[in-house]
């Protein structure tokens, strides 16, 4: 395929007339016509301008690198079209699978919300029936849990009968200090606040999953992923993921300050990398949408047999 054929193919794909192209390159229509027929060849500055208009490289314009399926033999053409159809099916199948998974997870998260609310109600009732003393917790003036210290080991005794050795002593000692330094109603307030934050976290996850489902539904059904609606979906997902990623660390730091205790929480480098990655994806989609406004590019064609 020669330069003139490449130029004509690109111009028709963009649905640009010879007159419009001539105006954009700042030449006459006759010049464009001669370029396409091979009677003349554009200067380098005009070639560069054509590359900008068609979003292509110089090699793609002047060499035989633009694939013309119709020029192939029948057997070759069938193989090329078949490969294209298989790629489209894979993309549609993948986007559909992700959408279904997101919907299932969204439903599961919805089930968790009433469980968290019920737990918050239960804690309020439970607190009235608990008595806390140093190294000892009593339920309904009957059931009792006592911490026993034997050399370097901590054991938990239940109702003065069963005794269990505690392996993870760090959190037990932290909990003991918290119980000794705060009233049970203050502890209840901290727990309710923690569950409220958990509830907010779960609701954000559900909103994010619903947006993810809509995004991949659109990718499955649409000609292209780079639509304004999809850009908005992925931006929403990015912002929600940023909140979901940073929220536990922020809440943990606040609780450390309030409780005056080291709860071993903080921000990890990987979390910050996730935030940067999500921002990048959002801007890639927006950039794809903007450059596609002019090209009217599509991702799917007719894949029916």
The computed structural class is alpha+beta
**Percent range for β-strand residues:** 5-15%
Name the shape in a single word. Answer: rod-shaped
Helix proportion range: 55-70%
Spatial sequence of strands, sheet with the most strands: 1-2-3-4-5
Distance between the termini: 30 Å
Q: What is the H/E order?
A: HHHHHHEEEEEHHHH
Overview of the structural elements:
It is a single chain. The longest helix has 54 residues, at 74-127. The chain is rod-shaped. A five-stranded antiparallel β-sheet has the order 1-2-3-4-5, with helices on one face. By secondary structure, the chain is of the alpha+beta class. The protein has ten helices and five strands. The model is unreliable at 65-72 (pLDDT under 50). It starts with a helix and ends in a 10-residue tail after the last helix. It has helices spanning 3-13, 18-25, 29-37, 44-54, 58-62, 74-127, 169-181, 184-221, 228-259, 269-295, and strands at 130-133, 136-139, 143-150, 153-158, 162-166. Strand 3 and strand 4 form a beta hairpin.
Briefly characterize the structure.
With 305 residues, the chain is of the alpha+beta class.
Features:
305 residues, alpha+beta, five-stranded antiparallel β-sheet, 10 helices
List the helices and strands and how they pair.
Layout: H1 3-13, H2 18-25, H3 29-37, H4 44-54, H5 58-62, H6 74-127, E1 130-133, E2 136-139, E3 143-150, E4 153-158, E5 162-166, H7 169-181, H8 184-221, H9 228-259, H10 269-295
Antiparallel strand pairs: 1-2, 2-3, 3-4, 4-5
């Amino acid at each position: 395929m020669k330069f003139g054929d490449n130029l004509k193919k690109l111009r028709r794909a963009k649905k640009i007339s010879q007159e419009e192209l001539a105006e954009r390159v700042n030449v006459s229509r006759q010049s464009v016509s001669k370029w396409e027929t091979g009677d003349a060849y554009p200067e380098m500055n005009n070639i560069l301008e054509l590359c900008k208009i068609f979003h292509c490289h110089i090699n793609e314009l002047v060499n035989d690198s633009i694939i013309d399926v119709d020029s192939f033999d029948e057997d070759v053409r069938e193989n090329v079209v078949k490969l294209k159809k298989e790629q489209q099916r894979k993309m549609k199948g993948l986007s559909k699978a992700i959408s279904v998974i997101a919907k299932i997870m969204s439903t599961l998260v919805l089930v968790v919300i009433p469980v968290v609310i019920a737990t918050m109600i239960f804690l309020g009732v439970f607190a009235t029936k608990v008595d806390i003393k140093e190294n000892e917790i009593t339920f309904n003036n009957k059931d009792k849990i006592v911490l026993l210290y034997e050399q370097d080991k901590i054991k938990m005794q239940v109702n003065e009968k069963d005794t269990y050795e505690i392996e993870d002593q760090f959190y037990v000692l932290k909990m003991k200090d918290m119980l000794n330094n705060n009233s049970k109603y203050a502890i209840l307030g901290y727990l309710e606040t923690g569950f409220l934050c958990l509830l907010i976290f779960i609701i954000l996850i559900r909103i994010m999953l619903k947006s993810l489902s809509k995004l991949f539904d659109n990718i499955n059904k649409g000609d292209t992923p780079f639509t304004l609606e999809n850009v908005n979906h992925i931006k929403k997902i990015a912002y929600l993921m940023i909140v979901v990623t940073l929220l536990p660390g922020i809440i943990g730091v606040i609780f450390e300050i309030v409780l005056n205790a080291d709860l071993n929480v903080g921000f990890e480098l990987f979390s910050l990398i996730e935030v940067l990655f999500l921002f990048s994806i959002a801007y890639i989609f927006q950039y794809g949408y903007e450059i596609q406004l002019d090209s009217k590019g599509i991702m799917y064609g007719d894949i029916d047999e």
